[in-house]
Design goal:
Elements (H helix, E strand, L loop, with lengths): L11 E3 L1 H4 L8 E4 L6 H10 L6 E6 L7 E5 L6 E6 L5 H10 L1 E2 L1 H5 L6 E2 L4 E6 L2 E6 L4 H8 L3 H17 L6 E4 L6 H11 L1 H10 L4
Parallel strand pairs: 2-5
Antiparallel strand pairs: 1-2, 1-6, 3-4, 3-10, 4-5, 7-8, 8-9
Helix pairs in contact: 5-6, 7-8
């Protein structure tokens, strides 16, 4: 997370890097969960010598908050994600569900409990980790991770459906040109996208 400057206290890594079950396919997914000015994040990166290889706005479904993604490498294995509007409670808990770690945790070699896309819970221990299926044990998993059962059930439903019908698509992916801000492109997209416009109105407290 070096390079995020004043945003380091807000940021964390999510997924296998936090859990410790890394392999050659693992991504580095850095998240700043609070809505912040994306230009300030980009300026902080630039001052530290980082230049994103691409920039995009993504939205998983019409109900999810749109997010800015700063991709930091050509292989698209490292990225910073920033919500462009406040996250819903279940979206916030999604990260805890998958495992989150701060920079201090990584420096100390601490690993965090979390669930994988294979619907298994990874529990780190002194010699590695224990891994077991969460299907049918949603309430137990929610208690272990300190999240609501709703997020565990939602992930079981979504990922179980993906296994049945194949990978599902993302509702919105919009490239952001180098000369434009995320906020400006989001505004342009919402002008022609009624579902996105409704989400923005709801998240921003509109009536």
């Amino acid at each position: 997370m070096k390079g995020l400057g004043t945003f380091e206290a807000l940021s964390f890594v999510h997924g296998s890097l936090a859990r410790g079950d890394v392999d050659e396919k693992s991504d580095i997914d850095i998240v700043i969960p609070s809505s912040v000015n994306t230009q300030m994040v980009e300026s902080s990166l630039e001052l530290s010598g980082f230049e994103p290889t691409s920039r995009e706005i993504v939205q998983a479904t019409p109900m999810h908050s749109p997010k800015a993604r700063l991709i930091l490498d050509l292989e698209e294995k490292a990225a910073i994600t920033i919500p462009l509007v406040p996250l819903r409670s279940l979206e916030e808990q999604f990260y805890t569900y998958g495992g989150i770690a701060k920079r201090a945790d990584l420096q100390q070699g601490l690993r965090k409990k979390g669930c994988t896309k294979k619907l298994t819970l990874v529990e780190p221990n002194a010699v590695g980790h224990r891994e077991w299926s969460i299907i049918g044990r949603e309430a137990e998993v929610a208690k272990i991770l300190g999240v609501k059962q709703d997020i565990v059930r939602e992930r079981v439903r979504v990922l179980g459906r993906r296994d049945t019908i194949g990978r599902t698509g993302i509702f919105l992916t919009r490239p952001v040109p180098p000369n434009m801000t995320f906020e400006r492109v989001l505004g342009q997209e919402s002008a022609t996208n009624p579902a996105l416009r409704r989400t923005l109105k709801t998240r921003n407290g509109g009536s």
